[in-house]
TrEMBL record:
GO molecular function, one term: isomerase activity
The organism of origin for this protein: uncultured Pleomorphomonas sp
InterPro entries: IolE/XylAMocC-like, Xyl_isomerase-like_sf, Xyl_isomerase-like_TIM-brl
Residue intervals of the Xylose isomerase-like TIM barrel domain: 21-216
Signal peptide: none
UniProt protein name: Xylose isomerase domain-containing protein
Length: 252
């Protein structure tokens, strides 16, 4: 299984060359970049190449994809990306009604088709707001995936936990749409934003890994921590836990 670091986790631990060297030394396959490196994609690609790290997926802002798609696709080609992920929505743009949710679904469907023409796959990455019940009883996550059957999902297990959802139920419901997962845990409180390293929080991750082993389209397992107090600790713990859990589950 390809293991990636979501680069957002390291935003406070630059320079990037040091981050990438440490990521490679820990045993990761690659990195999932975000918009902070888009202005000089060639330079970042060179740093990654130097460490033998691939950049197969990237978090690309919805605004950039809609307003400057040619620029977004050019950056992704430079980086070597094949999976474009819509990473989040600003709070003021998050749908709170079924009509607004349907509209976002149509926008993502248009983007998915445009990305496909340009040779990319498109996925959506969740936070917690996608699981709030709308006025008709539906959930935004369901609405978005129903709007475009070819839209893929980068399922963030940590945010599912934070939303009070049962990750196994969602992984099972959309097993054939999930191409990547973000793996982290949630403990609450103020320390490190309430997040915990994989394998060092309250969640029983063994059943989740058992499910991951049978997801037919899963390509990438992504390490993420939104606010690690110790980046080295986070990398080391994540990889140790991932290897142990993967071996027990038969995830290859």
């Amino acid at each position: 299984m390809k293991t990636l670091l979501q680069l957002y986790s390291a935003r406070n631990y630059q320079p990037w060359d040091g981050v990438l060297a440490q990521t490679a030394a820990t045993g990761f396959t690659g990195v999932e970049p975000f918009a902070a490196v888009f202005d000089d994609a060639n330079a970042f690609r060179a740093l990654a190449d130097r460490q033998g790290l691939k950049l197969p997926s990237a978090h690309v802002p919805l605004k950039l994809l809609e307003e400057e798609p040619d620029k977004a696709f050019a950056v992704c080609r430079t980086l070597g990306v094949e999976l474009i992920v819509v990473p989040w929505l600003p709070e003021e743009e998050r749908p709170t009604t079924r009509a607004a949710s349907d509209n976002l679904g149509r926008r993502l469907a248009t983007l998915r088709q445009r990305a496909a023409v340009s040779g990319f796959r498109l996925a959506y990455h969740n936070h917690d707001f996608e699981f709030v019940t709308l006025e008709d009883g539906s959930r935004l996550m369901d609405v978005l995936l129903a709007a475009e059957p070819a839209l893929l999902w980068e399922a963030d297990v940590g945010w599912l936990i934070r939303a009070g959802e049962e990750p196994l139920a969602w992984l099972d419901r959309y097993a054939d749409r999930i191409v990547a997962v973000h793996l982290k845990d949630y403990v609450g409180g103020d320390s490190e934003g309430g997040w915990a390293d994989l394998g060092h929080g309250p969640t029983a991750y063994a059943p989740i890994f058992d499910k991951l082993a049978y997801l037919p389209k899963l390509d990438y397992c992504v390490a993420e921590h939104d606010d690690p107090a110790d980046f080295s600790r986070f990398l080391r713990r994540w990889m140790e836990s991932f290897r142990n859990l993967s071996e027990a589950a038969g995830l290859k």
